[in-house]
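We modelled the chain as a single entity of 482 amino acids. Its sequence is:
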Amino acid sequence: MITKVVHGWRPGGLIVYLMGPGKAEEHRNPRVIASWDGRDAGWQPMRTGPGEWDFELGPLIRALRAPAVAAGLPEDADEAGKRGYVWHCSARVAAGDRVLSDAEWAGVARELLDAAGIAERGDAGGPRWVAIRHADDHIHIAVVLVRQDTARRFWPHRDFPRLREAARRIERRLGLTITAAGDGTAARAPSRGEIEKARRRGRGEPVRVELARAVREAAVLAHDADSFIAALREAGYLAQLRRAPSGDALGYTVGRADDVSASGVPVRYSGSKLAPDLSLPRLMQRWAGAEGEPGRDGLAVALRQVQGARRSVTASRTHRRRDAEDPGQIGHATADVLTALRGWPGTGTAMGEAADLFDRAARPPRGRVGRAGSSSLGLRRAARQLIRQRRVAGEGDLSAVIALAVALVALVREIATWQHERGRGHQSAAASASADLIERWSAGMAGGRGGPGTALMPDHVPVTAQPHGDPVVARASSRPRE
């Protein structure tokens, strides 16, 4: 169950939208299923005509707004830029989940509000709220953040993480798809507007997704902020550093020249808006210590580094030595190698798809890239050389690519097991899916060249403790537009 929260100022406007046709008449049979006073469906507005959205909304809006009126709160944005007092939460189940009844959704709404500290059970003086349903897979909860007993405006504390924890409890109780914990590893999902914009322009994916991929490739190729911006510009993107008065780089923005706003201005994204580990400070941590060159033959160097990294992860898992290199950092650097193999001549789309799958598994919790060890630094240097070599490579290098792919399968499966042992089911499942894809490609290619993929690399050792993570489900709580 995915929960999303946004703040606004106009409770009436929100109710009109939720009980109306939506932006494309997608709201079907809109109805009130729960309310602050237990009347629930008793607050369903009376019909004023034959249409599906012909309702007399005045009584519901006036009742919901009453505490805000008593508190003297406006319905327009505060000039000081404060958050609005209307708390709007949507809760959505996965596509394959069963359809919940109105009564079940009403219980979900109450549990989410209680857990988030918005409207606690048994608190008769709490805020007024309603839950509205107009689809099988989700509901909307509208709350006016003003107490009824004191007419005082209030703000919930840590409502986003508390909602995430409550949603996971609800999933287990109702037998729904288990979503990821709120550990900051999920990339920020494209908004509905971005998805529709891509569809209108005939693009296969939203610009945000394309830019995240381009930034990852530029980050592998670069060794500092200036070379990173140069790599993005060389690839045809708009990229600019944001500097402090001292001249130090503080951040960056990236965009496409043909992706513009309604006013014709190019839309730009900061790194942190693309993924937690793509902000400039995180990238600079990644580049620290990885400036050296690995040699001319990137494939051979990468093979040795991947084999050594797999042994390091195994040692950390089995021996649990305090001085062992952090497998999380090795996993993050492994993503660089997969990124470098994307689009290698003769590989088709397999390596790019594997890199996309592994991206979630590689991202560290909260985007924190810690101190790198010899294995992760070696992987990053090898990845940089692989990208350079890829530009002039031909299919004659394919045997070496297959050998590297088989080595990567062993490393990625070891990382998947390590993630599984730490209870990171979604990251483990993402790594396993990536390994499966690489293995199918390498086995097929090696079979066509006279032998199984494992014959190319004696160092390959099957991982016996295969992870069985939960299905990969994105995304954790985020803040969509109202």
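As a brief sanity check on the tokenised model: The chain has three domains: 2-174, 192-287, 298-456. The first helix runs from residue 11 to 18.
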